[in-house]
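WARN  no MSA supplied for this record, continuing single-sequence
INFO  ligand: FE2/S2 (inorganic) cluster
INFO  echoing inputs
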Amino acid sequence: MRKILDNLKLYFKKKEDKNETICYCFNISSNDIAKEVNQGCESIRDIRNNTKAGMGCGRCNAGVERVAYNAIKNRNKNI
Ligand code: FES
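INFO  complex generated
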């Protein structure tokens, strides 16, 4: 079970390293979301308001939250 979780973490980390498109409605990438977090956005609402990610069809909401969570975690590691 542990190995499966480690492989899943690695899979998602690789996807984020690739600057994948998260929101197709507004063409927002994982780097765009990470940039917002690094510029001080503290909530999903702020990220949505600034980038419009998730404000179209809404299919990307889980992806926006995942990338934002990881970006906040990485930002806090570097403080
Ligand atoms: S894919 Fe993000 S709102 Fe539609």
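The mean pLDDT is 88.
INFO  checksum written, moving to next record
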